[in-house]
User: Fold this.
Amino acid sequence: MNVREHRGVAPSSPGSVLAEAPLSAMWEGMVADHAGFAAAITVRERVLSDALLFAYSSASVARNLPIVFMGAGPTAPLVFLQAFLSPPTVTCDGARQALIVSVDVAGDLTFSNPSGAETHPIVGHVEISIPPVLMLAAGKVRLQPDHSDVKVITWTFTVSDGTVFKQDTDAYLRSATVRDRLSATVQWALDINLLPLPSVDVTSLGAVIDAAAPPASSVLGPHGQPLPVLVEYPVPARVVDGALVAGFNVENFTAPWSPPGQTGGITLNGDAFALEAFADPYDIAVITNPEALPIVLAGVEQQLVAAVGPDRTLASLTLSAGHDQFDVSGSITETAAVATFSFSIVPHMDAERPGGLINSPDNGSLHIKIKPISIAPRSYAGLWFSAVDPKIDISFDWTDAVLAALGFVLIEPGLIFLVPIAFFTIAQMLADAADEFRASVTSANAGAPVACVHHVTSSTLDNVLLRIALEKFSISPDGPFMGVTVTPKLSPPALVGPQAIPANLRTQALKYSVRLPIGVVADDPYLHIQWTVIDPANGTVHVNSDGLAKDRTSFTVTPEQVAPGLVGYDVGCRVYRTTGLATTDIFEDVVHLVVTPLRSSPVYVRWTVTTPRPTVGLDPTTGWHGGWHLANRRSTIHRLDRVNSPNDPRCQARASRGANLAYLDQLPFAIIDIDKHRHELCDYCFYGGPAGLRETL
Ligand SMILES: [Zn+2]
Assistant:
């Protein structure tokens, strides 16, 4: 069934007495989620918003912008805003058919004409409407509307210091004219690439994307070398409330096998108006049209065609999406003989990494006694495929010899929804007997499963970890469905620095730093950071340093200089934002720094040791393999008082037996640089564990 009618649109039926609502409901179920496209994708607005927030938070983005309102003639008044942009958010607005990007701005707004100039501090709000015009090229879907279609739809502000603009000025600044001038400014910023629009990498959708955007034939460069041509293909899209939905068309895709007599390839053109969100409860979802299975399973077709060879004919081949499986069936002919075959491909999302045993090296080259390494099997979320229920029916004219001549048939479905998903081999599909065929299909090696959960870090954001998980892969007559969740894990704001120092370090400079929440940036001209040093015994304030956040996210203090002789210091940090008359607290914390008695020499220990280290790998077909090499390993530095009476058994200091010990009375670097040297210090001796943020020296 391939119904293309729009949702909610009744067929022309003059005699119909049904009311509109029941008709809508009746037709609701009849449009497939793929809407006739080869594949359709739904992306929720939260994913788009998060992506914009992370882009905003990276250091390379300009957040302080001098904005000259453009788009008016030379006689128009000058309108200028020295703006700081807050983190943007994205809303998918179905009624407007647009992505709405909302940004709060704060800054000094200047109005100037020949009769004078006025400037006041303002807090403003801008909403920009972007139509969902998407282009696909080089595996990326880009938002690429005509810049003239990007419009500012909301522009409001309040003067934040309690003053006002003159009445005429105020009316002009709030007028549609100024809003349109801001639109022109945004369009200009897009033209010169000052505001890059986001793109989504869809290469992981694999074969369908390759078919939707085939590479163009290359052109020859000045020295006759082929130059790639980047061809862009439109991706029809629609905005529904809360999500962006897009479909991928395929034009004239030539599958490895075509039915006899068929000319031309597979063309699937969907109907953008029929796209609806189908992601629930996932963040991103993809559904593939069952008619696109020859594209998705082109690898299966390719291997079948190759195995059948030129002397025989693959007379029929059917790939279909059933309930929880792909069904493959077909027939092979040679003169009067016919063999029909069928099997199914079933997805699984529970994978197991096999166990293994890696024996000691037997040549004695290491001259160290080594125990074999035993690797336990491990279950994990991984997608893999198995072939089940193979059947072959051979007409009597086929002799065993003819079948044997067919040799091996390798089947590789190329189910590349997430690259590289599965290399899935069914060997010896047509052997010299149906039984053997059946046995070999069922025992086929499904290849290495692909992990369903990936953690992605960003080089520009060290406090964000993205967990991307394939939560659901299912097959139904509507087509294969994939549901993905995208979960950001954000490091919370924190005050970092030493919490205990031995008395001799009180004359050294100590460094404290604050980790800001995501979306709060130090170059925000309204953000303030206040550092204090207080005597906890009597509340005396020894340091009170308050100012703009820029260059103040860390703070240096030498305890003996600010207050000699104390046994404790409270180092406090407060982060707050002030716009006009309003103040918002963002973060506040205190480190209770304790000065501890000097410990007897030596204080710290580290060691070097030569150990045999295994190098192991897992081959999907041959299992575990490995060997040994000798490595000179230098330990982290440990506190000797903790080595002697280990507080935490996870501290590796116990492993120092037999090693070449080196004792230290001081750390081999300036204490103020301790952040850069954290990897040289034992997490347990100095930080209370790997997640610890404050040193006990
Ligand atoms: Zn330790």
User: Anything to note?
Assistant: The chain has a mean pLDDT of 80.
